[in-house]
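hey so i finally got around to running the thing on that chain from the lab meeting. sorry it took forever, my laptop kept dying and i had to restart like 3 times. anyway pasting the input first so we r on the same page abt which one it is
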Amino acid sequence: MSGPARARTPLPADYWRLWSSSVASNLGDGMRLTAIPLLAAAIDPTPLTVSVVSAVSYLPWLLLALVAGAVADRVDRRRLMVRLQIVRAVAVAAFAVMLTAGHASMVPLVALALVLGVAEVFFDCAAATAVPAVLPPHQLERGNSRLLSAEMVANEFAGPPVGSVLFAWRQAVPFWLDALTFAVSALLLGRLRTSLNPHDAPAETGPKPGLLASIREGLALTWASAFLRTWTLMLAVLNFARAMTVAVFVLYVLQLLGGNELTFGVLSAMVAVGAAAGGWHAKRVVDRIGRKASLALGLALHAGSNLLLATVVGVVPTALAGIAFGVGVAVSNVVFVSIRQVTVPASHLGRVSSVQRFFAWGALPLGALAGGAFAASASLRAPYAIAAILVLVAGALLWRPLMRPPEAAERLLDAEP
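ok and heres what got predicted. didnt touch it at all, straight out
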């Protein structure tokens, strides 16, 4: 089959069920993730306090990611994902009731962030296996690009401005809508027909390893590949740098730019503008410049966007930095995730994904706290300057293995159906 003909092959119905579920959930997340820092800033507008809420939401990745990956490879992933979405819907709805009753304080806000963070760890480790389960290898880059761009539009383009406007009107409304989107997502996931049960996937015969042995297998598989190992370390640096800046971005907008809630929502959405464009066209970018250059593009735009925010203060430069960052993240993420999906056996994908998320997402709470500390001790520009330097130094030190994706993986992604 020719390239153009293959590109027109429709994606299967289960992919679109998964896509719709993700869009629904991410739309609610976008509203809530804008409302939470605004609420935290309204309760106590200091950098360290706001960053603590961000750090708590990421802390479960550091504590539970490896366990969650092992669990995801031992249970029916679809059933686990449905139940976790229901748990998240109930938790957010309970907080919305409290907020509606006028009981806004930092303690329940931190508790909500922690509960949702724990559920997210187990959900995302299971969800990482879903796309390669419903798509053949030659459709992975196309499917991942469609999914990523839609998630970013919902989570960081549509959700934030809507959430900020609704928060300014009634603080509880974004949380009520988030609870509803979790419920819709659960219903859509329940309609998946493709099995996400790891026991149904081709795997080695013999007794199932224990939980600790499963975790060790995930670590061993990740470290056995120079490409996966190096990108796992690089993702930790990238996320540490990103968390430094995100944790204080609400204060950057409100205090440095003199903006309001709507300004914060709109500028937050600029990342999604870039990510939507980059994600939607990621496959074309890869076909034109290659996977190595696409990965390099992501690193360059990550560092460059932070450097711009550190040196030029203004609404337009902030918007441009967000767009550039989104393009880079989307293109490089589609490439990396697709390579991982064809490199790792389906029966072990949850564990390997969790190892990478343990390092990458585990760096988020540390980065959030560091960002708050640098902003409090120096200035609100400081986290952005330090983030740019970190990415540039790490990228230079790890450059050679970062730019060497496995040839076997590239052949699978390029293969005709």
